[in-house]
Specification:
By secondary structure, the protein is mainly β. The chain contains three helices and 15 strands. The protein has a five-stranded antiparallel β-sheet. It is globular, with a radius of gyration of 16 Å.
């Protein structure tokens, strides 16, 4: 596995976004939208949003860990649990940078743009923010747009980032960041219970693969 190359495991084609030679790890990101799922089933509540905030099995996070990954035998063996960071949002408590330990996850707004999702401004080098690796844009603009595998046909694909949207008409609401499949443009949605695209990201053990 080499940085900036592609690799196919269990029939899924991935971009290799980074290689951590010291720890024998490679960071993979699916080339295509491989599934579609709600961010959370009860996403009609616009007051809060967060990748790890809900225990319900009907979340994108639970789907990736409990359904998608177990159905890919080689990936299940080589994927490595890691701590990731992400923004959560609450109408009552504001925005916060939190973390969770995940074996498979979604990219963040910072991974995609190099910017802080709260203000859409540069993140200082000493602030890790919600970058998965390094402190700069991880996913090139050319990789934002994505095709869908057979049987999957969403309009957007999810990021793990949730921030607050302040609107004079609707008030303050939690939104999740999404990417338009056809051209890679960014969007914010309150519809967490809308089934949209999944492009998994994970660290895998190079020697094991």
């Amino acid at each position: 596995i080499r940085d900036s190359s592609t690799v196919t495991i269990d029939g899924v084609e991935f971009y290799v976004l980074a290689v951590d030679e010291d720890n024998d790890l490679a960071l993979l990101f699916s080339k295509d939208v491989v599934a579609e799922h709600v961010m959370r089933e009860n996403g009609g509540d616009y007051s809060t949003g967060g990748w790890n905030a809900y225990s319900s099995s009907w979340t994108a996070r639970a789907y990736l860990h409990e359904e998608w990954l177990p159905n890919h035998s080689t990936l299940s063996q080589v994927a490595q649990a890691t701590e990731i960071s992400f923004y959560t949002s609450s109408r009552y408590d504001g925005e916060a940078l939190e973390s969770s330990t995940d074996t498979v996850f979604l990219p963040s707004y910072a991974d995609l743009t190099g910017f802080d999702a709260r203000e859409e401004e540069d993140i200082a080098a000493e602030e890790p923010g919600e970058y998965t690796w390094g402190n700069s844009q991880l996913i090139p603009n050319s990789l934002r747009a994505a095709s869908c595998v057979e049987g999957v046909d969403p309009t957007w694909w999810w990021l793990r980032t949730s921030v607050l949207d302040v609107n004079s008409t609707t008030g303050t609401r939690a939104v999740f960041k999404q990417v338009f499949c056809s051209n890679g443009s960014l969007y914010s949605t309150v519809s967490q219970n809308s089934a949209q695209g999944i492009r998994p990201m994970m660290w895998v053990r190079i020697s094991a693969e």
